[in-house]
Write a structure and sequence with these properties.
With 57 residues, the chain is mainly α. It has helices spanning 2-20, 25-50. Helix 1 runs antiparallel to helix 2 (25-50).
C-alpha cells in the first residue's frame, strides 16, 4: 500500500505544478492521470492477491 501512496503523491504533485505552470498545464495534468492510472493498477493487483483462493494440492 505504500507504493499506492507514493503514486498518488506523484499525481498530486503534478496537479499542484499544473496550477502554477500554465505553459505545461496539460502535460502535467496528463502526467497526473498517468500516476493515478498506475496507482489504480497497483490497488487492483493488491486486492486480487488478497482475494485469491488458494489452490488445493
Amino acid at each position: 500500500m505504500d507504493k499506492v501512496q507514493r503514486l498518488r503523491a506523484m499525481s498530486s504533485l503534478c496537479r499542484q505544478q499544473a496550477a502554477y505552470n500554465s505553459m505545461n498545464k496539460w502535460k502535467l495534468l496528463a502526467e497526473a492521470e498517468y500516476w493515478d492510472h498506475l496507482a489504480n493498477l497497483e490497488l487492483s493487483s493488491h486486492f486480487e492477491q488478497c482475494n485469491a483462493i488458494p489452490s488445493a494440492n
